[in-house]
Design goal:
UDP-galactose 4-epimerase, domain 1, alpha/beta, Rossmann fold, 7-stranded parallel β-sheet, two-stranded parallel ribbon, single chain
């Protein structure tokens, strides 16, 4: 049995889909689980509840964690450490391996121009401090031989079905409404993204590769060093739109955050959009001979799904 905790989002759905290539015994766990594959076993649970989490883990060979608690620092401080503690205890009890899908918030901002698995952990944001704390909890459990685990880290997500990303909400959705696309931070710095379908393929592959465990892996991400402006221009070209790109500065985010709560929360990690941000996934790409999707093809798939939905 391979179990997905927090299934249903863009990444979770793609991972569930790809796992079908490895096993037909897939358990999908969330508050409102839905089948991705015909044989998926659904389990409704609040995984922030330790007893429900334990029941979800029970009988699982591998547990994939794609949890997305509400994007508020107060919620993160309360729920993430408690969840990680319970996850480690349950997986130790049931001898289940962990594949934890992570982000880059804990990295030292001075190293964002070429992030690797060795990038120093030195968070400057409150959300980054939480992510660093739970990462260390998991790595300490590995060091104590309590669990076998993989940390599968991704850059900002994009792709069909990734509804909550800033790229989808402020670029794609605005263009669909014939409005000007908006961008958080500076337009002429490098930024790259991890494509949702590549995440699914890579996480399923890692989870089913025995010698990949007890390591950090960067999920496959384009090695093209495109600026934020270029990403938006590719989207506009694909949609046959010519619009002015509106740049939202960190100062403006603070003001708009009074009326738009998500911007208030994003301001905490806005530094990632103010400097070059390049996520290096060469370790994974070389190990598995993997070629990430091109930005042009990834955006083409995003637009196609949005128009047809």
């Amino acid at each position: 049995m391979q179990t997905i905790l927090g299934a249903g989002g863009g990444a979770g759905t793609e991972i569930t889909h790809e796992l079908f290539n490895y096993t037909k015994e897939i358990r999908v766990v969330s508050r409102n689980p839905k089948k991705v594959n015909e044989t998926d076993q659904l389990m409704q649970a609040d995984i922030s509840n330790p007893s429900m989490l334990d029941e979800a883990v029970k009988g699982s060979e591998i547990v994939y964690v794609t949890v997305g608690f509400e994007y508020k620092i107060k919620v993160w401080k309360e729920k993430w450490p408690r969840f990680m503690k319970s996850l480690i205890e349950s997986c130790k009890r049931h001898n289940s391996k962990i594949v934890f899908v992570d982000n880059v918030y804990m990295y030292d901002p001075e190293h964002l121009s070429n992030m690797t698995e060795e990038t120093p952990i030195k968070p400057v944001s409150k959300k980054g401090e939480v992510r660093a704390e739970i990462f260390r909890m998991l790595m300490n459990a590995i060091d104590r031989n309590e669990v076998n685990a993989i940390v599968a880290r991704g850059a900002d997500f994009y792709g069909p079905g990734v509804a909550g990303s800033f790229f989808t909400q402020s670029v794609l959705n605005n263009l669909l409404k014939d409005k000007n696309p908006q961008w958080l931070g500076k337009l002429d710095v490098i930024h790259n993204f991890t494509y949702s379908k590549d995440i699914g393929k890579a996480v399923a592959l890692l989870g089913n590769t025995p010698d990949a465990y007890n390591q950090v892996w960067h999920l496959p991400t384009t090695d093209q060093k495109l600026t934020s402006r270029k990403w938006v221009e590719i989207m506009m070209k694909e949609m046959n739109k010519v619009k002015k790109i509106q740049e939202i500065s960190s100062t403006m985010m603070g003001l708009l955050g009074l009326f738009i709560p998500i911007l208030k929360e994003l301001k905490d990690v806005a530094y990632q959009f103010e400097r070059d941000y390049f996520f290096n996934s060469s370790k994974f790409n070389k190990r598995f001979n993997f070629t990430p999707i091109s930005p042009e093809q990834g955006i083409k798939e995003m637009v196609k799904r949005a128009i047809n939905s």
